[in-house]
Write a structure and sequence with these properties.
- TPR repeats lie at residues 65-98, 99-132, 133-166, 167-200, 201-234, 235-268.
- This is GlcNAc transferase.
- GO terms for molecular function: transferase activity.
- Helix 4 (99-111) packs antiparallel against helix 5 (115-128) and helix 10 runs antiparallel to helix 11 (217-230).
- This protein is mostly helical.
- It has helices spanning 48-60, 65-77, 81-94, 99-111, 115-128, 133-145, 149-161, 167-179, 183-196, 202-213, 217-230, 235-247, 251-264, 269-278.
- The protein contains 14 helices and no strands.
- Among the domains are: 1-129, Serine Threonine Protein Phosphatase 5, Tetratricopeptide repeat, CATH 1.25.40; 232-281, Tetratricopeptide repeat domain (Serine Threonine Protein Phosphatase 5, Tetratricopeptide repeat).
- The protein starts with 47 loop residues before the first helix and ends with a helix.
């Protein structure tokens, strides 16, 4: 989803921003906006009250790079990317070896559409700290969206070899396995992601699709239903549930679920196509 973090062992860890798990397959392919990268953290951390409090901290100690890094994270959660970028720039100016700030700034660069700047920042973070798992995961997401699948796989693999507890590494490696038809390996990775983030809907969507590819329809249906329970606004989950209904010949329920998916995301093509197939006159 790339974590925006403060330095480990500090009082600011609870302000870390985690990036959303990114889906990329035909049916589950979430079309995320930049703000989705900050979706799985308490929105209050991006509130004006919290930002005001962090500004007071900075005013009392304007040479502390960590304070800028934390406020930049809060700005990022609030969708104020230009303000976040300024704070991460200041943090890096104060501490040129602040690898967390480079990785955090990379996420903002991605949100602003500057993929080359994001890549440069991830590379710099890894150069400073070759064991920083969050930077590998962030760079892997960048590579995967650019179609550099093997480079992405290698970065997710590296993060996992570093014993990361970040579910995104497993989820995104699972997506790559899935795209290659290696569904058993994909299911293992999605299951690990679920164990690390049981309240995230996306790994259930991913695992459900691999179960479906292996004709384990009941397992797939259970996963899609869980994804809906966790995120009722997931158009992908509703469309996936509808697909199972459609496979079972229940066009009425399928059409209802496809319609809900389309209500949530009017541009979601799998829902449009599914509703056209199942809607009765």
């Amino acid at each position: 989803m790339d974590a925006l973090t403060g330095e480990s062992g500090t009082n600011w860890r609870n302000l870390a921003l985690a990036a959303t798990l990114i889906s990329g397959l035909a049916l589950t392919g979430c079309q995320t906006s930049p703000t989705a990268g900050f979706a799985n953290i308490d929105p209050a951390q991006g509130s004006s009250e919290n930002i005001s409090s962090l500004t007071s901290v900075i005013n009392s100690d304007p040479r502390n790079p960590e304070s800028y890094n934390v406020r930049g994270s809060a700005y990022g959660r609030a969708g104020k990317y230009r303000d976040a970028l300024k704070d991460f720039n200041t943090a890096i100016q104060l501490n040129p070896n602040y690898y967390q700030a480079y990785s955090n700034r990379a996420l903002i660069q991605r949100g602003l559409g500057d993929q080359q700047a994001a890549l440069a920042d991830y590379n710099r973070a890894i150069q400073i700290n070759p064991n920083y798992d969050a930077a590998y995961i962030g760079r892997g997401n960048l590579y995967r969206k650019a179609g550099r699948t093997m480079d992405a796989f290698n970065d997710f693999q590296k993060a996992i070899q570093l014993d990361t507890t970040d579910p995104r590494a497993y989820h995104n490696r699972g997506l790559i396995y899935q795209s290659q038809g290696q569904h058993k390996l994909a299911i293992e990775d999605f299951s690990t992601a679920i164990s690390l983030a049981p309240d995230a809907a996306e790994p259930y969507n991913g695992r459900g699709l691999s179960y479906l590819a292996l004709n384990q329809e009941d397992n797939a249906f259970a996963d899609f239903n869980t994804a809906i329970r966790l995120d009722k606004k997931s158009a992908e989950a509703w469309a996936n549930q509808a697909l199972v209904y459609e496979r079972r010949g229940d066009k009425a329920r399928a059409a209802k679920s496809y319609a809900e998916a389309l209500h949530l995301n009017p541009k979601y093509q799998p829902a449009k196509d599914g509703l056209a197939r199942t809607r009765t006159s």
